[in-house]
């Protein structure tokens, strides 16, 4: 049994007098401790897929199972990071993390919760900013806090929807490496199961064990590609290898080939 | 850059900026004109003005010496400067040149003297008025906010309750007074009821509209944390709609004072409105003016505290 099983999932958005099929017959599974990236062009239903896993949207058809049980709502077995606005603006960074821990560990004492909050804020390099409000932090710092919160909640599953999508290129690189380091850990604890949505191919290759490529209209799975690179991964070393370029090109071809077939032409001018 | 922010806040203010300000000059002018000959028939009791101004100026010098932020100092000095200008014009217009009719506009010294004489009575009336406001207002806020949170949350798309509370908050609450008098035994209970209604509907309406305008992202963030209904309502929905809620609370507070003082002028046996009305009926304009000034001070003081509370509770906003 896989950690997450998505079986023939379809999601329709019902509007006034029309149906919009955001996802059509999506099937794939994620093993425990696996890092899966979902990539696809914007509008192909990545966020919709994740919101079903989060438990805030429900399947029109098919089902989503976690540990063999159908998802019937939100649960404290899943930690979530959105692209933006995951944090509560009226709570300090520290309070935001503590609040998350409180929801996930209902019988933990307050002192212990704050200790954990401090520990994880230190891990993301924000111990000096823990008493700042989100409005006093840059976008990158806010995402660090959101990641710290998701990790501090110590859930089996992490769901991330383009968490670095609104961050500038330099900080995005830093955050990717931070996430990679924290997720890979030092081997003493079992890794978390991660579903990571992105539209950045390099980000997906660097982070994921496996890539799910989605296509649009209706949103569905195009193909699944295992990422053949050893861990722990080092970006600087990795991107210089021939294997990396070859793999990246293969992915690009699949990605854009899909778009080309959609427009009906053979060539895509970028 | 941000870590250093808290230490950068201590500014240095030059001696000139601290002590040689227009406000200090106005103080000297105010004292100076007190020594002009009086034209009024009754004694102007100018010493009272001198004592008051001297006390205020001591406070000004103390604050000027210790305050850390220049913006705060300027604000404080501007307010005191305004009081000095007011007293200068008043002194000149009454005691010194008699531009105003003496029986209607007694000189400031007499009003200060009256204040000292009546201080117990004034205090009783202030407490009476404040007691009614606090009761009616707090009761309304304590009921309207949770109810608004609940109703707003149950009907995030907008429904009858929104329109009804908007409609009811637009009715001038003064129209409830006749019914209050017919239904309730004492003037005090009528006042509490009217203030309750004057506050209840606007707070309910603004709370509901606040809840319905919360960004979906905030709600989703809370939902994916698997919060329970109570936490959702009071730890997420409430703070997220707080700035809207304050709009209704502000409206309620302003209207409450207007209502109460008017109501007290109509039918009360104590309270600040009663104080003003009663003495103006007897032609005692010294006490009438004193009452008006006290009402002004109370309103300014309450609004100041309220603003402080609002700023504190919304300190997380940019
Ligand atoms: N609440 C909604 N109601 C109607 N249509 C929606 C809603 N949310 C998303 N959609 C539509 O569903 C499609 C997939 O959206 P989304 O899952 O956000 O895609 P992605 O995250 O891959 O960009 C888009 O065409 C979008 O317009
Ligand atoms: Mg999306």
Can you give a write-up of this model?
The complex is a heterodimer of chains A (270) and B (318). Chain A is 36% helix and 24% strand. Chain A has 270 residues and is α/β, with parallel strands linked by helices. In chain A, the strands form two sheets. Chain A has a six-stranded mixed β-sheet with strand order 6-7-8-3-9-10, with helices on both faces. In chain A, strands 2-1-4-5 form a four-stranded antiparallel β-sheet, covered by helices on one side. The longest helix of chain A has 22 residues, at 242-263. The N and C termini of chain A lie far apart (42 Å). In chain A, 39% of the residues are buried. The radius of gyration of chain B is 25 Å and the shape is flat. By secondary structure, chain B is mainly alpha-helical. Chain B is 77% helix and 0% strand. Residues 1-8 of chain B have low confidence and may be disordered. Chain A binds chain B through residues 51, 54-56, 74-76, 78, 80, 82, 84-91, 99-100, 103-104, 128-129, 132-136, 159, and chain B through 2-3, 215, 217-218, 220-227, 231, 235-236, 239-240, 242, 315-318.
Present the secondary structure layout.
The complex is a heterodimer of chains A (270) and B (318).
Chain A: E1 4-14, E2 19-30, E3 35-39, H1 46-54, E4 61-66, E5 69-70, E6 78-81, H2 93-104, H3 110-123, H4 139-152, E7 157-161, H5 169-184, E8 193-198, H6 201-207, E9 210-215, E10 220-226, H7 235-238, H8 242-263
Helix pairs in contact in A: 2-3, 2-4, 3-4
Chain B: H1 5-8, H2 15-19, H3 22-33, H4 46-66, H5 70-96, H6 108-154, H7 160-169, H8 177-183, H9 187-212, H10 216-224, H11 229-240, H12 242-267, H13 272-281, H14 285-313
The complex binds adenosine-5'-diphosphate and magnesium ion (MG).
Adenosine-5'-diphosphate binds at residues 13, 20, 22, 40, 42-48, 219 of chain A.
Provide tags for this entry.
heterodimer; A: 270 residues; alpha/beta; six-stranded mixed beta sheet; four-stranded antiparallel beta sheet; 10 strands; globular; disordered C terminus; B: 318 residues; mainly alpha; MetI-like fold; 2 domains; 14 helices; flat; disordered N terminus; binds adenosine-5'-diphosphate; binds magnesium ion
